[in-house]
Amino acid sequence: MPERTDQNFFKQGFPFFIASLLFATYYIFLYLVPTPPSETSQLFTWITEWKIYIQIADEILIFATLSLLPCIYTLINPLNEYRSPIALFASALFFLLLVPMFVLVDLLLGRLVYPVNNYPMSVDAIVFTLSLISGTMHMISLVLALAILLYGFSFRKKPRGGLFVLSGIFGFGFQIIASYPWLIPPGVLLFCQLSFPIWLLSFGFYFLMNENKFPKKNQTDLS
Q: Would you list the DSSP string of 136-194?
């Protein structure tokens, strides 16, 4: 029975590694795409030139978003332990706001680079789509900052909880900075955005390293 429990913990940590890798790759591909030109007449050239990078980022984002679902389920109530109201609220932010907004960004990016029944995109439509993408990504960073901070405090009483509080505070700050991309250089923006996949990676290692601690407690509860 202990082997099965350890495997369950490995399975709980594995989605975090996948989500971390996918989101890091997504942010890197977005970084490779330069800022859209201010001249609207150059938008078609910009899309054509960077179409491949946007398509790759678009495809990666949908899988990254799907990989978040088992991660948030694990964070909500690992091993059926006490459910923290803070963690429940943070999970609600992910399920009700962040996941839908990531899907929306994915759809908008796809509309820029994929044909829809051969309907042409006018300049005004491109500007409107880019505006929606910019506004939605701004909201994603703000909500993500709050969710990361809440998760950090919800894990404060668990093993190495102080590190999660600290990572939550740093993640909160980096995401707040990332929510204003027009005020910072692209390199700084990428660094701040990567705080999210790094945060996911830390939880993956957490479940992997503590696989022999929680099972004993869980088995005591069942006896």
A: HHHHHHHHHHHHHHHHHHHTTTSTTHHHHHHHHHHHHHHHHHHT-GGGS-HHHHHHHHT
